[in-house]
Amino acid sequence: MSGAPRIGILTYQFSENVGALMQAYGLRTWLRQQGADAKFVNYRPDYVEGGGALRNILSPANAKANAKVMFLKLMAAKQALFEDKAQYRMFQRFQAEKLGVDGPVLKTLADVDAFLRTPAGKFDILICGSDQVWAPSLQFGIDPVYYLAFPGGAQGARIVSYAPSFGKAQLDEGYRDEAARYLARFDSISVRERSGAAIVERISGRSASVVPDPTILLGDYGALAHDPAEPVSQGHIFCYALRSSEGIRDVASMVSRRFGTEVLSPYNPHRRWAEIGRTIKPSPGGWVAHIAQAGFVVTNSFHGTVFSILLRKPFLTVGLTGKRAGMNERARNLLETVGLSHRFVPGEEPAMATRLMDEPIDWDAVAPLLQKLQDDGRNFLKAELMRTNRQDSFV
């Protein structure tokens, strides 16, 4: 190959969600470590966080979609008015400095397609993923951009998915034909969950590799965990709660009493519950550093679980309850894969934490299981880089 392969990534690199930024950081950093010139295509659709456009408001069929649009618009307005501007700037700085996000913001399929026709938009490989980029949204449906379905053909770039998720174990039948049509165009397909591989095979007849989230793919976050730019205390209880405080509040309190240590919880702009312990406002890198320096981690988040494992911290993952219980699947599958199922505490049974918090974790037993996961993802992407090299050698 005459130079480093150029790789364009389409994911949620713009989100103010730490997990989304860390998976974006993991994929790009690992690809760059392999010698690739990897960058994000700066697609930022309004519907993901801003709600997007209202549909025919007189039609009852659009009621749920329009309600979702209005909810997201209200949340976006609330954040614009009341969000901590200093933390917002920290997220923006992380996106620019650590993710290398630059160039004009692209809002629509037409914007992205036009960009991919330019010299700056010439890539050897386009990769979509990770995160739930294949999950149809209530207000928008399937986004062809995240299926790399570009009318202009993207100047012949190889079309590859790395660890996208459909968001749940089944794809609604109304989206089946559209998704199958897009999947037929891919050169190589991988997904994040076994359920995603089953969906791909069922609707398109194609096989999909199951690979880990990019945070696991990279594995080493020392560059962020030991960043001296942000002071971090040591030995605290780090409580990373998303979507609900049910169960996790009780577990964090029990762990705090057991070890006599303060609970620190990172700020969540979508929080609708009273704070757990003391709220802190770290940068994305500072979030990693707080886990690295914690004495114990309590979380109900998949990425909170991932980083507890990667940084070898004693932890408990508390299950979400009720209608949100289906969101526990990712964390539970990961825990099972690396032999740590016993670190899961059902949200309805927080008292289980009493006997678990003192149990040591055998990290030596976890290591080869985690390594196998990483090898699955790395081997998939190395094969794609090799294919690109072989193709280029004949150009």
TrEMBL record:
InterPro entries: Polysacch_pyruvyl_Trfase. Residues 17-318 form the Polysaccharide pyruvyl transferase domain. It comes from the Bacteria. It comes from Novosphingobium resinovorum. This is Polysaccharide pyruvyl transferase domain-containing protein. The lineage of its organism: Bacteria, Pseudomonadati, Pseudomonadota, Alphaproteobacteria, Sphingomonadales.
